[in-house]
Amino acid sequence: MTDLLDRDLCPSTDVAESPVGGETVLLHLVDGVYFGLDRVGTTIWELLKAGQAPRPICHALTETYAIDLAAAEADVRAFLAELEGRGLVVVG
Amino acid sequence: MRDGGDCEAAEHFLADQVMPRLLAHIGGFVIHAGAVRIGDGAAMIVGDSGLGKSTLVASLDRAGYKLIGDDALIIRPAPSGARVASVYRSLRLRPDSIAALFDRAPPSSAIADYTTKRRLDVDVEVGIERADPLIAIFFLGPPSPAVNVTPRAQSGSCVGLIANSFALDPTDLDRARSKLSGAAALAAQVPAFTLSYPRDYARLPEVRAAMLDTMKAITA
Fold it and tell me: Which of the pair, A77 or B7, is modelled with greater confidence?
């Protein structure tokens, strides 16, 4: 199975969002599920919206949050798996 | 209606289920929560059914902090700050909570056949024109050995507010979007906390003190 970091993921068009004090809350418009993103999640979400692929996002996080690449990849992989499981990101 | 029990159940259904949803449908942000007045503002207590909202607001009311409501509240946003009021007169407690909180049980009535809770005859000011400034939101956590008040992230507050809000038609996407932006604004405006404590009547003074300290820190 292809690593999530190597897939072309983008925000679903069925998602509405609202900024909340530097964080973000997502609403899946089809199933009505709400999902809160913390600051790191919001950074990843913004980069996804800007068309960034997962691996460049990992590199961006190492610079923004001063974490090593392995930690960034693990965090992004887990985050994307949760978003994909909720239908909030889809293969572009 | 066959008898008094049916009438009570119907009244309970209309007040608890229908009216909050109708108010939400016409644009109000209506939430399943309790609230009391502390100083010049209100503390709102949010939590799933059975977590102890009514017992805690009743405890605060007994300690001198005026009950605003224990079940359905309507929140009015304003540039100067959100305000909160009760949708209807309500304080409903289980018999064990009544016995623990009152030296002499106040007048009360049955709610419905399916619950042991009783509606107490209490003085509650109802109506948005009587709304109090909302100073803090406390989300009830599961029982814990100690009393803890921890700040809650704004996104978590926003999701918690939505999860506990009323909607007549949850599939109405325009209203869902509107609710999202309303809850986000509220979460950004009002500090929120997770309140965890042991469900032990003897520890309620400690819980009240923790809430009061938090409110004082906000308004200082």
Answer: A77
